[in-house]
Design goal:
The structure is a homodimer. By secondary structure, chain A is α/β, with parallel strands linked by helices. In chain A, strand 2, helix 3 and strand 3 form a beta-alpha-beta unit. In chain A, helix 2 crosses helix 8, helix 6 packs parallel to helix 7 and helix 8 crosses helix 9. Chains A and B meet through strand 3, helix 4, helix 6 and helix 7 of A and strand 3, helix 4, helix 6 and helix 7 of B.
Chain lengths: 233, 233
């Protein structure tokens, strides 16, 4: 196999959060990556801030960003994230996290992304799912990632890579810090209001914890900056 | 396991064609099937006749039909079926059939369908892919169906069943005739014009051939009823 054919041509699923941004920047710095596209999937999120974050991050690195509208899929399935209820506050528990599950969301995104990657001549989809997602999101687990990668490879010749599937969010914060990821451009808060992260929802608590555990400065503006300490205590 | 939990609760992917209609009617007659929903996926087809066919078929059997809009996915990938070029005429060859490939289309539909099935408490997605699709559509092959079923099972607890994956289209015509499938309500033609099937496109030729090989009366109105014999000769 020649050196050219071994180069990776990747489509990175970019949500605008710290995990997928770190995955993107990791590809930017990887000499084995010859081509990068980013894909933002809208499955009916309740705010546009995530897309604005993804746009500014892609622009920072000169990466082409494409948006895929899967809102019709989002509207067919049950989840508070797509408007069916209130976003739960506080640290994730099994019960509150379960409310944020969109059944087979990652699976559907990954298959659509693989098809788009194939039509652009790319060889691989990169997704930033991590170990913290496993407990509640079945389509973020290592055995699922293996199965979906096999299906996508058979379906359209594109593999699926999940570089952080065995990493914690704190590991990702450390990796991101090493790569000088512009965390200040990233967005996690499920409430998605201008004026900063709420600091109280499950993703805000996870985010603050991850920076703390990693010993990495957290540049995030939280409207309630200390809530996560009580939630975690 | 009790009898109740062994009953199948199925979501049938219904395109309005003869294959998926036969799969639906097969479920209608199966005493092991306790619940049926039908899902029509619009991935950017160029005509609405397929949806009208699916609607009338679902109504005939009293099955709830849901429509999922994946046109945004269709528009991101390359295929003549979604408007990128002319539909090839005549019998499918590898080259002309390849033009009708939407990369990972089945894969994406199946994963979205599995998520929708899960959110309705159903246990299984049924798809009518058949052996005639294998040569060119990689995401219709038995090994792909196994992989995607495993991924969907892991992702949201819903299996994928492809009852005709080892059958020819003629086998399906025979099965449909035995089940009194209303073939006259089904639609295959890629050109999708009122006034009947064109009789010249790849699916029309396949359809006419299948009825002929099965020895089943073909109720289809073809604008060019004899073209398929020359195409096949």
């Amino acid at each position: 196999m020649s050196e050219t054919t071994m180069l990776r041509r990747v489509l990175v699923l970019l949500s605008g959060g710290m995990d997928s941004t770190t995955a993107l920047v990791d590809c930017v710095h990887d000499p084995a990556v010859a081509e990068i596209m980013a894909l933002f999937v809208d499955y009916g999120q309740r705010h546009i801030i995530e897309f604005l974050s993804a746009t500014s991050i892609a622009a920072r690195y000169g990466v082409q960003l494409t948006r895929l509208d899967l809102t019709a899929f989002g509207s067919q399935v049950n989840s508070v994230l797509t408007g069916a209820g209130e976003v739960p506050h506080g640290h994730y528990t099994a019960a509150t996290m379960a409310q944020t599950v969109v059944p087979n969301r990652n699976a559907t995104m990954l298959m659509a992304a693989a098809g788009i990657a194939a039509s652009h001549g790319l060889t691989e989809v990169v997704t930033a799912v991590h170990a913290g997602d496993h407990a509640i999101y079945p389509d973020c687990r290592p055995e699922f990632m293996d199965a979906v990668s096999k299906a996508a490879q058979l379906g359209c010749g594109v593999g699926v890579r999940a570089p952080f599937v065995h990493s914690s969010k704190a590991d990702i914060a450390r990796t991101g810090a090493r790569l000088s990821v512009p965390f200040e451009l990233t967005w996690s808060c499920y409430e998605g209001k201008l004026g900063g992260h709420c600091g109280r929802c499950g993703t805000c608590v996870e985010r603050a914890e991850a920076f703390f555990e990693a010993g990495v400065d957290d540049p995030t503006v939280y409207r309630d900056p200390d809530f996560w300490r009580q939630a975690t205590a």
